[in-house]
Design goal:
single chain, 436 residues, mainly alpha, Arc Repressor Mutant, subunit A, Glutaredoxin, 3 domains, five-stranded mixed β-sheet, 20 helices, elongated, binds FE2/S2 (inorganic) cluster
Length: 436
């Protein structure tokens, strides 16, 4: 890449202005951009200035464009010196940009450079007759026709010293010249005898047809898969819709899943530990359907089969974890073996605990136990993690039940200030085991 500086002062014109022919076009370019964004027109304006000034940009033109666009001179100078399309010094009537990049070099660009040097002189030097100047540039994107040059706005390709010399002769003489390949070939078609295997299908459209068929087949399969997925989703929805509806009361606040006393009487309280049994008993019950509740237990049963299945799975997991503990392990040791103890409070916030008995499944006994663990508020239970649920469930000797009765879900509702159907019954005093 060449160093790009302004031309010597000696060749710089003192003034520059767009001609009457140019100014209309210039104003059109500026008007393309919104108010305050006129600087975006800097490249078109510099290009027009160069075109008007025998294809080079004097300092006066750069400053004139800056003034028109209300830009600092330095900003416009930066643009002009950055882009090699702007010539910063006088060029010949025919300005030759000669590609010296590898493909052109390998195909004889060195010989073309020699022609330029012998006929014109050094780069950036205008020939004595004013007709030519030349500059070595990087790849101009016509490598398949290497070596090549750009003269003013046109490409001349497939050059040899002979045809290039002839080209310059014709230009100097003002004769018409042929743009493009100078060796007779059309564009970049194969040169001379074909030296590569060329599949006729490349030219008869069958390759395109073949790809088209492939894309169509892919689309057809994708459409089929999509339709199948939609049909499956609809079938699942239909099946769900055909299931009998569950009463809201049953879904939210139905009786708890725990064993009924052997006498079948209704004396069990909401959280009777004896009725629930030890952790070992619960583990032994794992996989069994939840027993029905006695009439005043008012604790939510697992009406949802998925929830019931999840609760059973929890029971199995906890039973497996407890299996290796000695039978003499304490409640805390068992709880520590299966989960993490939730953080507790030293005392109820503002000295007033929530009535945890408003959660279906928590009666006076378990409320007392939870309070001893530092659990006083609905939002504490609402925030329990799986590990904490396991710990509390095992500590209270009913693993799986917290999930089955959805203590966390009930606690979230109550913590938000809303009621559950069960909490309403407690508030009405119709749940004996929940009375203080
Ligand atoms: S290398 Fe010369 S045009 Fe690309």
């Amino acid at each position: 890449m060449s160093v790009r500086r302004l031309a010597a002062e000696s060749v710089q014109p003192t003034t520059f202005a767009f001609t009457a022919e140019s100014i209309g076009w210039v104003n059109e370019q500026i008007a393309k951009y919104p108010a305050g964004r006129q600087a975006s027109a800097v490249i078109p304006l510099l290009w027009k200035a160069q075109e008007q000034n025998q294809y080079w940009l004097p300092k006066a033109a750069i400053e004139h464009v800056a003034d028109m666009l209300n830009m600092p001179y330095m900003r416009v100078l930066e643009v002009a010196t950055f882009y090699t399309m702007f010539n910063l010094e006088p060029v010949g009537k025919y300005f030759i940009q000669l590609c010296g990049t590898t493909p052109c070099r390998l195909r004889g660009a060195g010989d073309i450079i020699s022609v330029c040097e012998s006929r014109i002189g050094e780069q950036r030097h205008v020939s004595a007759d004013g007709n030519f100047s030349w500059l070595e540039v990087e790849c101009l994107g016509a490598c398949c026709n290497a070596p090549m040059v750009q003269i003013n706005n046109d490409y001349y390709e497939d050059l040899t010293p002979e045809n290039f010399n002839a080209l310059l002769d014709d230009l100097a003489a003002g004769k018409p010249v042929k743009v493009g390949p100078q060796n007779g070939r059309n564009a970049s078609e194969p040169e001379g005898d074909v030296k590569t295997l060329i599949d006729p299908k490349l030219f008869d459209g069958s390759v395109i047809d073949s790809w088209k068929a492939t894309f169509e087949e892919r689309k057809r399969k994708a459409d089929e898969a999509k339709a199948a997925a939609v049909a499956a989703a609809k079938a699942a929805e239909d099946a769900k819709a055909s299931e009998p509806a569950k009463p809201a009361e049953q879904a939210k606040d139905a009786a708890p899943a725990r064993p009924v006393p052997s006498d079948g009487k209704s004396g069990a309280t909401q959280d009777t530990p004896a009725a629930t049994g030890t952790a070992g008993q619960a583990a032994a019950n794992a996989g069994q359907p939840a027993p029905s509740a006695s009439k005043d237990e008012a604790v939510a049963p697992a009406a949802d089969p998925a929830k019931e299945e999840a609760a059973k799975a929890e029971e199995r997991i906890i039973a497996a974890k407890l299996a290796s503990l000695p039978k003499t392990a304490s409640a805390t040791e068992k709880a520590d073996a299966v989960g993490s103890k939730p953080a507790g409070l030293a005392a109820p916030r503002a000295g007033k605990a929530d009535d945890l008995k408003r959660i279906g499944g928590i009666g006076k006994v378990n409320e007392g136990k939870l309070n001893l663990l530092g659990v006083f508020h609905f939002d504490q239970i609402a925030g329990w993690s799986l590990e904490e649920i396991r710990w509390v469930g095992t500590y209270l000797a009913f693993p799986g039940r917290i999930d089955r009765e959805d203590w966390v879900g009930q606690a979230k509702t109550l913590a938000s200030g809303s009621d559950t159907a069960f909490s309403k019954r407690v508030d009405q005093g119709s749940v004996p085991s929940s009375k203080a």
